[in-house]
């Protein structure tokens, strides 16, 4: 009994540490990457290659006073940042980094991750509502409408994968893709010829779910000051920031598990956690790369993309896969 | 229906082209200068604050005529000179002559509007624009330039 509790504590601490370190150093990677793409060095003053920038930023954020604007709903205002960070960390519990490194392997792992991911929208809504600022409210309404419309094609794509693999356990999903790149879900097979399209679709949705550019309407700086976290300073803002980056890691992990064979090697050699990390960091690099390439979409363009293109295609793919699974 | 798919196709294609552009830029060298640590050389025609020009002996070319002082609309130049006697050989006999030597040439840069009238008015080509642009200070005394001292520092 005590061993299970110890295990749980270790898992939680490891998940928080992984999420926090990733959040801190993805900010650094983002800024360095943005710099490279814009032909400038990025943060390079603190430490070699600016590697001490994240701890400096963290100390600065923690040293600041947490201001609560007058007229704000105090309880909601304080709860929202925690609600943004906690589900992100919770989702790490069921993500299998390799066949042995997983905090808790669940039969409904996919469902759990999506349940917690939709709480992120709640956090944004509460932040906007609680801070009693017109910019924050507008941003949170935008972000929520975006999250809702992108969750639908994402979930339909996941249902397609669940039908193919016949399980909702993430580790079993990866296990069904072992043995080289031709077993991965991204490769079209007889029963699911549209898998590359699904991958692209899921990728776009994951990008939109994390509220990142070019879908960062929730924090469109040019129109809404800083979006839903306009009124937040100090670690309140820090938690939103960390939650966003933790969500990026989770999105990349999900894409890796669902489409790219998890911890498996493309050639079937030496499967392990290193392949998983390599894949998620390549995906995160592409997220950063996309963010610094494309300008922000309009809200109409964003919703049109989801309702007119992504949802019909994902539904078509679902029906096609369902039919072909019956045939083959 | 055809337009729907071609729009998706061309949209994706243009996005891929955009990604290609930034990917190529990613590996190119940086073009910025980390300013406080490194500075770039100013261009030839940059007009900074004024500076004295030296002659072959390293002394200022200035003959203390005061034209620049008179030309300055902001009155930010103040100079002083003293008379010095010197001997020169004219047609085989030594003669004593007098000339003015510059003893002080101060520029009050706080009121200077960088119009360049002083450089225009100088008949002896003794004043020019400097290329100095790293001028920032919280004390106004730092902008009272002793141009004679600057000239000596440049020569040493």
Concise structural overview:
The complex is a heterodimer of chains A (328) and B (156). With 328 residues, chain A is an all-alpha fold.
Can you characterise this structure?
- Chain A has 328 residues and is mostly helical.
- Chain A contains eleven helices and no strands.
- Helices cover 67% and strands 0% of the residues of chain A.
- In chain A, helix 1 (2-37) crosses helix 9.
- Chain B has 156 residues and is an alpha+beta fold.
- Chain B has a domain at 50-155: Alpha-Beta Plaits (2-Layer Sandwich), CATH 3.30.70.3270.
- Chain B contains four helices and five strands, in the order αβαββαββα.
- Chain B has helices spanning 2-26, 67-71, 117-121, 147-155; strands spanning 50-52, 77-90, 93-108, 127-129, 144-146.
- In chain B, a hairpin with a 2-residue loop joins strand 2 (77-90) and strand 3 (93-108).
- The longest helix of chain B is centred in the N-terminal third of the chain and has 25 residues, at 2-26.
- Chain A binds chain B through residues 33, 35-41, 44, 289-290, 292-294, 309, and chain B through 8, 15, 18-19, 21-23, 25-32, 34.
């Amino acid at each position: 009994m005590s061993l299970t509790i110890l295990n749980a504590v270790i898992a939680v601490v490891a998940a928080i540490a992984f999420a926090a370190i990733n959040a801190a150093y993805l900010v650094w990677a983002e800024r360095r990457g943005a710099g490279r793409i814009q032909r400038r060095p990025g943060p390079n003053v603190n430490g070699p290659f600016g590697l001490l920038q994240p701890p400096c930023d963290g100390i600065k954020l923690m040293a600041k006073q947490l201001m609560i604007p007058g007229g704000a709903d105090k309880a909601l205002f304080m709860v929202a940042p925690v609600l943004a960070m906690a589900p992100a960390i919770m989702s790490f519990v069921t993500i299998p980094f390799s066949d042995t490194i997983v905090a808790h392997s669940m039969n409904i792992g996919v469902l759990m991750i999506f349940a917690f991911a939709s709480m992120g929208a709640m956090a944004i809504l509460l932040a906007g509502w609680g801070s009693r600022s017109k910019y924050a409210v507008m941003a949170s309404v935008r972000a929520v409408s975006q999250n809702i419309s992108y969750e639908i094609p994402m979930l339909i794509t996941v249902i397609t994968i669940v039908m193919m693999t016949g399980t909702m356990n993430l580790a079993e999903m990866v296990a069904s893709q072992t043995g080289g790149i031709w077993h991965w879900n991204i490769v079209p097979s007889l029963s699911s010829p549209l898998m590359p399209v699904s991958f692209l679709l899921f990728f776009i949705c994951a990008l939109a779910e994390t509220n990142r550019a070019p879908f960062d309407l929730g924090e469109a700086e040019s129109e809404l000051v800083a979006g839903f976290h306009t009124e937040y300073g100090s670690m309140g803002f820090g938690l939103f920031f960390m939650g966003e980056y933790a969500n990026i890691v989770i999105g990349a992990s999900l894409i890796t598990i669902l489409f790219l064979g998890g911890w498996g090697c493309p050639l079937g050699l030496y499967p392990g956690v290193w392949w998983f990390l390599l894949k998620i960091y390549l995906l995160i690099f592409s997220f950063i790369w996309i963010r610094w390439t494309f300008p922000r979409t309009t809200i109409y363009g964003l919703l049109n993309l989801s309702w007119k293109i992504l949802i019909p295609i994902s539904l078509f793919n679902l029906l096609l896969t369902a039919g072909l699974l019956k045939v083959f | 229906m055809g337009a729907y798919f071609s729009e998706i196709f061309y949209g994706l294609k243009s996005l891929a082209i955009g990604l290609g552009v930034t990917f190529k830029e990613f590996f190119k060298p940086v073009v910025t200068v980390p300013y406080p640590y490194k500075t770039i050389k100013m261009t030839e025609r940059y007009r900074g604050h004024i500076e004295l020009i030296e002659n072959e002996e390293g002394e200022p070319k200035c003959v203390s005529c005061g034209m620049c002082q008179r030309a300055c609309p902001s009155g930010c130049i103040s100079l002083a000179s003293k008379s010095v006697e010197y001997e020169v050989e004219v047609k085989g006999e030594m003669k004593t002559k007098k000339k003015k030597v510059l003893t002080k040439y101060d520029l009050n840069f706080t009121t200077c509007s960088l119009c360049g009238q002083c450089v225009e008015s100088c008949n002896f080509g003794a004043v020019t624009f400097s290329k100095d642009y790293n001028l920032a200070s919280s004390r106004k005394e730092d902008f009272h330039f002793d141009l004679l001292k600057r000239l000596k520092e440049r020569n040493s």
